[in-house]
Amino acid sequence: MHWFSRLFRKSTVERQLDAELSFHLEQQIADYVAQGMILEEARRRAQIELGGVEQIKEKVRDAHRENYIHDIFRDLRYAIRSLTRDRRFALTAIFTLALGIGASTVIFSICYNLLFNAFAARDARQLAMPAFQYGASPVPVSFELRDIASIREQNHVFEDLAAYNPHYGPVLVNDGKIVYKVEHAYVTANAFDFYGVPPLHGRGIVPDDGKPGAPAVFVMSYNAWQGEFSTATNIVGKTFTVEGKPRVLVGIMPPRFQMFGGGQMIWMPFDNASDANERAYILARVKRGVSLEQASADFAVMIARLAQGRPKDTFQPTRMVSVTNIFLGSAGIGDGPWNAEFDLKQMLYILFAAVTMLLFIACGNVANLLLARATAREREIAVRSALGATRGRLTRQLLTEGSVLALGAAGLGCIFAYWGTKLAAARFGEQWHVGRRMGYEAVIGLNPAVLLFALSTTILITLLCGLAPALHVVSRDLNPRMSGASKGVNSGFRHSRLRVALVVGQLALSIVLLIGAGLLIRSLHKMTHVELGFNPQNLAFAYAEPPRGHVQTHEQQDALQNNVMQRLKSLPDVSDVAITDAVPGLTIGSLNKITVPGSTHFEDGGLPGASENLPDTLGLHLLRGRWFSRVECNSGQYLTVINHTLAHDFFGDADPVGQKIEVKSFAVSHELRDVSFQIVGVFADAKNHGILQPTWPQAYIPHTIQGNIGYTIGGALLLRTRVSPGSLTHVIGEQFLAVDHDVIPDEPLVLKDWYDSNIYSVPQTRAMMVTPLAVVGVLLVMAGIFSVMAYTVSLQTHEIGVRMALGAQRNEILRMVFRKGLGLILTGVLIGTLASFWLMRFLASQIWGVSSADPLTFSVVVLLITAVGLFACWLPARRATQVDPMTAIRYE
Known about the structure:
Elements: H1 3-7, H2 10-34, H3 39-50, H4 53-63, H5 66-85, H6 87-115, E1 127-134, E2 137-140, E3 142-144, H7 145-154, E4 158-174, E5 179-187, H8 191-195, E6 201-202, E7 217-220, H9 222-226, E8 239-242, E9 245-252, E10 266-269, E11 279-286, H10 292-309, E12 319-322, H11 323-327, H12 344-376, H13 378-386, H14 391-431, H15 448-474, H16 479-482, H17 497-528, E13 539-542, E14 544-545, H18 554-569, E15 574-580, E16 590-595, E17 603-607, E18 609-610, H19 614-618, E19 622-625, H20 630-634, E20 639-643, H21 644-651, E21 660-668, E22 671-683, E23 699-702, E24 716-721, H22 729-739, E25 744-745, E26 749-750, H23 751-795, H24 797-805, H25 810-839, H26 855-881, H27 885-889
């Protein structure tokens, strides 16, 4: 019978074995009877010669291959029964491992999708862009289309290249019934073929669409189709009016496609003839085998040739940079200096390291539990060994229990990973812009390969963790365990060095995790409590765009803004409205060279226009002098109110009121001339170039001075509201349209919300992802310390009883337990603190306003871990003081 058949016909195999043994026994008896023995003697001699029937059966079974499988099933059944009896141990171990699997899978999936699968393009790893270095960040450089065509002709290192220009600002799209306001971008006609993402419906833009006389077309994003155009059906092939020009919608792109100006809703082709002087960003696919250094060198040669042909034009030094480094580095977090501190790739590496530490802590904790369980079962193991179980058999049984734990944890870990990834995707997709220029092509989801890796790693580590205690127990002399001699006065830590080493390692790793989380939280607190110099609550920045190609005179702009401002002031939910062209905390207004009469020293400074009531609306604090009045503002007098930085740079501690500043090349009536402004006041510094950056010199002037305002129509309106500005979006837009129905009112910029989503969201997400890992690590460490100390107390129960019988007080017993626990804690704290001093320097790029060796953070973490460790020691120490001396003396 084949071994596989015997596996499922065990009773038949046993009957056949019994029949075969009976046949041989009866045959031997018959032989002895034939030799003249009586039947009883013949039976006795035959049984002696044959040997023990059960022993023979065991040897026969061992020779069968299926016996190993039966042993495995028996081990599994025994392991399940054993773990079911000790539910607290089983649930703790499974939950601990599941947390490690779930957390590591979530973080590993995020890292994988953002680092290796961030773009939907064909051969995305070959994509590169020309960029210049801005501090530590590469920033893409734009070129004129005629130069891009020349670069394509001279190119030797690129398979192909495309170009795009994301026009930040909406256009009107009219389907004949509804007018939609959408973000747009222009692309070269080969851009969609170059990127290699097939459309969801219809087709993309093709090279023929860029030829002179070609029909005007455009392509729509998936988000626009599902959002603004959700009521439209069968719209591919329909003609829309875009910027006053009929265009045919030829395709809709899939959800993941967001390149060529992330966040754009429609894409249109450049006109190769009329748009030759338009500027665009280059996206190139580097040939295989060509390094970025070689591509940069070749590109530099092409730029040098262009510069020779046009000596009056300036061509900025550039190098080819991988799109991953651009969009996932500090430049990819967002536009502007307020985000230049943060590097997304660096943050992903830190998250990867943090979750790896947590996985090691979880596996170390389970190893500790398995070791404690195996050691506590020494009597049972000794008895089984005495009954004939080999050390290999015992080791296999203990490993089987570890396997059951690992499989249970794998199932629960998959559930944690699934829901954890969903939560992470919601956080990334809704609250964290993963790079405006990249858009949202990176899909945060559960990656099967990453999940398989996390499960395999965890199961392997668990088996190794189970093997260590199994070998530790079965390799020792088991005879003393039979008599209970293992629990004596001198047991102490003698048999728990491995457990102590594991707990010390867990303590050190948790210190590193907690200090990293503490630095991130401290940095976030510093950011959110920066002194802005104004009150951002219920403050909104409202503006409108003129139709493309529409020009308004300065008088028309003044009339529009004044009429809209009066209408907004009459709203019951609006407390005040002012005019300015500088976004508070973010922009400084028009950038100019500023000096004072008689000085050769110049400084770059902002010269924003403002109305007379800006200090009240914004909440600026005047230090000296006054603000210009309504009469002075309406008459366009050359007055200015400067900030403290500008006053200190040019006047020191002297009073600048009444003095003058000179502005070089100031635009007046479309002419550039040097003008002077008389200082009438000084206001306290307010953030004006990113809330995380130092304040720049700034001088407010009347907004009515001709030529100054150029941000939008007549500048923008700054509103202070009594309710959330977001609830007034529609009402504010109506006021613009009521004055001029041709303008395009944009959604008001709610400053507090903008800060939260664009500045604070990245550090918030980072802190939110690392902090739970650190907290879980601390809880696991507390469980590890408790298990070690509880095990130590159980080993010393006999010793404690003897001490108490000889007169030891409960306080002395407490001190004895605490002394051993404190030594373990301090060792782990010391190692972890020293490791943190070295490792935290890698976190320096992710924190702001806090040193990587911040004394407060280190002190709080050390005290916290020490307190947690002492509490974990107190529980078994308290139990030790309640030992009855007589019971303890008899304790085995």
